[in-house]
Amino acid sequence: MIQLKKVIKLRTVVSTSAGMALATSCYLAGLQVANMVSGDLAWISILVAGLLALLSSLNFSELTSLYPTAAGIKLFIQNAFSEKTAIIIGMFYVVLGISMVGAESFLLSSVLSHSFHLFSLYWDRLFWIIFFIVFVGLINLRGVKITGIVQDILTYSMLSFLILVSLYAFWKHGFHFDFPWHQPNAHAGSILQAAGVGIFLYVGYEWVTPLAEETTDYRMISKGMMIAIGLLSVTYALFIVAMHQGLTEAQLRSGTPIPHILFARNLLGSNGVVLFVFMSILASVTSFNAGLLNTSRFTYAMARDNVLPRSFSKLHLTYATPWVAILGLVLFSIAISLVIFFTGQYLYIIMMAAALECFIYVVMAICVIRLRRKIPDTPRDFKIPLGITFPVLTIIVFTGLLIGIFADVTRDYNGKVLFQNYWVAFGMALFFLFTTAYTLWVVPKLKEKAAVRAMARKRRRPGRN
Predict the structure, then answer these.
(1) CB–CB of 131/366 below 8 Å?
(2) Span of 42-46, 195-199, 214-218 with lowest mean pLDDT
């Protein structure tokens, strides 16, 4: 029987965890943080957001030490509550999570279509969207060892590049950090509010947990997530402040979807634009790659448990990768990207992703508390200190952020209202109802078919289970 290979080391765990959060859309979110706190204070909000991400990572670390499996989040919820609850929340989380590809591919296509003219602006955008999704699908299909190497190169190149450019910008403009406490939005409340938006910069770091079955030591997962959050905190804190200082007032207010490209032109001229376009490609490919790498394993595990059609659990005979799951997710990603392409509502997807992360962090903290009570004596390689203090704190903090997102309004840089965020809550609620209906009506039929197949195999091979 073909099985997943145990080939992933700590280096790749870190690059996968950090790579998922390194996306082109993060430049926009980071600039939004800077605008909320008078620019130079953005590093404080970003570090506070990093601490909150670190808080949530404690829960993932304890749960992974209990259940190091590709099923990851589904199994955590299943053991804490029930299989039905796990299927509903697991599918809700994974499918909505991969929809981030739609926003990311739209922004990347904006960068490339403004830099390279192949056909027309319309067809160039469409071409780049499909090209990069298919490209990442192919390198995932080749196998996790090759994918891991690609992920290492992309992620560490991105981190190094962003830090070096930031330091150069500080040197060129005269290194300084202003503390504009005299500004009306420079106070503790604004810094914390901006930290809530800053959570988006760490979205997806936990998607490395389904790789537990493919690591040489599953304990690397918790260590890798924490290292990744630390690297992201330092990198974003430097780059967002540097970018904000390097943009003109008119550029800050223009509402452009490509602020990093304008920053590059101001800092390095036309050569800088080329470098940053390349950086955008790295960011998006890194994010696509990490997202597809992990969601395909989750899909594979769900199919292996007869929650999805059995064909999604097929492994490639040569590369031992879940090729049907990868193909299905590639097609789904293209479909979502086309919806964003025709509607232009990429901010809706970004707000939904931030809300989804807050939701799953709360669910994981509740799982830790439930499992502490259900199986208190089960050995854990990692156990959060101080009892349930940190899980309870996670629930309070991220529930507050989730309510704050839904109660807020999404505006452009000039203050124009784009949409009320309760429409994000409405869309998520509809999809939650869909996953609930699928779990109650479709999953029982899939399990019934699986039982019939098992009985047929038993009759053909009597005496063998």
Answers:
(1) no
(2) 214-218
Using DSSP bridges, classify how beta strands 417-420 and 409-411 pair: parallel, antiparallel or unpaired: antiparallel
Is the per-residue pLDDT at 185 higher than 70?
Answer: no
**Residue 212 pLDDT more than 80?**
no
- pLDDT at position 348 is 84
Q: Is 61 exposed, middle or buried (CB count within 10 Å of its CB: 0-12, 13-18, 19+)?
A: buried
When mean pLDDT is compared over 170-179, 345-354, 363-372, the highest value belongs to 363-372
Token pair recorded at residue 18? 């950090």
Q: Which residues contact 78 (CB under 8 A, 6 or more apart)?
A: 71, 85, 86
Residue 331: C-alpha distances to residues 98, 134, 285 (Å):
11, 9, 16
**How many CB atoms neighbour CB 431 within 10 A?**
15
* CA 395 to mean position of chain CA atoms: 20
